[in-house]
Amino acid sequence: MTKLRSRVIGMGSFLPPRVVTNEDLAQLMDTSDEWIVQRTGIRERRWVEGVTSTSDLALQASRRALDSAGLDAEDLDMIFLATLSPDHFFPGSAVFLQTKLGLAGIPAIDVRQQCTGFVYALSMADQYIRTGSAHRILVVGAEVHSKGLDKSTRGRDVTVLFGDGAGAVVIEATKVETPRSDAHLLSTHLFTDGAFAEELWVPAVSTAFDEEIVDQRMLDRGDQYPKMNGRQVFVNAVKRMPEAVETALEHNGYEVADVDLFVFHQANLRINEAVAQRLGAAPEKVFNTIDKYANTTAATIPIGLDEAVRAGRLQPGMLVALAAFGSGFTWGSALLRW
Ligand code: COA
After folding, report:
1. Ligand 1 pocket, residues with Cβ under 6 angstroms
2. Whose CA is nearest to atom 46 of ligand 1?
3. What is the mean pLDDT of the chain?
4. Which domains does the chain have, with CATH numbers?
5. Closest approach atom of ligand 1 to CA 25
6. From 145, 184, 265, 268, the catalytic residue
7. What's the confidence (pLDDT) of residue 1?
8. Is 312 left (phi over 0), alpha (psi -120 to 50) or beta?
9. In angstroms, rounded to a whole number, what is the distance separating the alpha carbons of residues 72 and 67?
10. pLDDT for 103-150, tens place per residue?
11. Can you name the residues that pair with 139 across neighbouring β-strands?
12. What's the pLDDT at 2?
C-alpha cells in the first residue's frame, strides 16, 4: 500500500568563520587543551562576531538547504526552527528567519527542546507531511551559544563544551511503495523526563523567581548562564540514546548491524563512544564533528548530515539512525532510508 511519508530533498549548514581553539579559551579561564581534549574530544569551536544572531545563522543554512533542493523559499509550506538560544525572549526566532527568507504567511514555529530540538522538529514536521497538511517543510537547528556563556573560570565546565552553528534540511512528501528501499523517514520516537529539568538549564531570565523576569540578584548569581550537572547528564545520555535507537530499530524491524551510518547529537566524544559501544555499533559507522564544532545543540545533527553527505559518508540507499539527548531531559531518535 502506498504511504505518504517525508523525504529529505536538500540540506545545508553554516558555521561562523571565527575559530576559537582550546588554547584561546585557556587565555580567558583556568582550563587547558589537554583537559578539554581528554574529557570531551573537542579541539575547537566556532563563535559568531558582532551582531550576528541565531536567525542569521539559520538563514545561511536554510539558503544552502534550499539551493541543494533546487527550490526557492516560496516553495515552502512551513518552517520549524529548533533553538535554545533565540534572538529574543519573544517572538520566536522562526518568525525572524521567515522574514529574512522573504516570506510571509506560512506558519513559522519555534521548537524548544534543546539538544533534541532537531529530532523533535523533524518529528513534528513529519506529522504534517504524513497527514497531507503540508508538502514541503524547512527544518532548521541553529544556535548562538557564545553570547550566553560564562567566559570566566566559574563557567569553565560548561563554556568549553559549546559552539555556534546552524544546519537545515528540506523535507518533501513522497509516496512510498517499497519501504525497504524507497528513500524516506521511517519513524521518529520522542521522550521527555522533566524531573531532570534543573540538571542542565539556564535559570534566568525567569518568571519563576521573583516579581521581575530579571533583576540584579539573578545577574550577580550568574543565573543567565547555563548550569549543568555534568555527571548526571553523562550517565543519562549514554543510557537514553541507545534506548532510543533500539526503539527505532525494533519498531521498523531492523538490527543495529543494518544501520549504515549513525549521526548522534554530539556533546562529548566519550558519550558517543559509549553509546556506540552499548549498541554494539562499529565505531567507523558513527559520524563525528565534535572535534571542530563542539556541541552546537539543535544544529549538531543537521550539520552532521550535511557534512556526512559532503564527505561521501552518507549515500542514497543507506539506512541512517539519528539520536539525541539533552536538557529537559529530552531524547529521541529518527530512522531514515537516505
Ligand atoms: N578545565 C579544567 N578543569 C575543569 C574544567 C575545565 N574546562 N571543567 C571542570 N574542571 C574541573 C572540575 O572543577 C573538577 O575539579 P575538582 O576535581 O578540583 O573539583 C575536575 O575538573 C573534574 O571535574 P568533573 O566534572 O568530575 O569531570 P568529568 O570527568 O565528569 O568531566 C564533563 C566533566 C563536563 C566533561 C562531563 O561530565 C560531561 O561531558 N558531561 C556531559 C556534558 C554534556 O554532555 N552536556 C551537554 C548535554 S547535551
Report:
1. 31, 35, 39-40, 115, 156-157, 160-161, 200, 228, 230-231, 233-234, 237, 267-268, 271, 295, 326
2. 267
3. 97
4. 3-176 (3.40.47.10), 184-337 (3.40.47.10)
5. 7
6. 265
7. 74
8. left
9. 8
10. 999 999 999 999 999 999 999 999 999 999 999 999 999 999 999 999
11. 80, 169
12. 87
Could you say which of 268, 272, 288, 295 is catalytic? 295
Average the pLDDT over 93-109 and give the result. Answer: 98
Is-catalytic flag, 115? yes
DSSP string, 35-87: HHHHHH---EEE---TT--HHHHHHHHHHHHHHHHT--GGG-SEEEEE-SS-S
Question: Which of 15, 7, 10, 6 lies closest to 296, judged by CA?
Answer: 15
- Find out whether 62 and 51 touch, Cβ atoms under 8 Å: no
Percent of the chain with pLDDT over 90: 98
Q: What is the mean pLDDT of residues 297-317?
A: 97
CA 154 to ligand 1 center in whole angstroms: 12
- pLDDT, mean of residues 266-287: 96
Nearest ligand 1 atom, CA 39: 35
Residues 51 and 5 sit within 8 Å (Cβ to Cβ): no
Read off the amino acid at residue 110: D
Quote the CA–CA distance of 109 and 276 in Å, as a whole number.
33
- Up-side HSE of residue 199: CA atoms within 13 Å toward CB? 19
d(CA 149, CA 29): 12
Q: Give the C-alpha separation, 186 to 137, whole Å.
A: 17
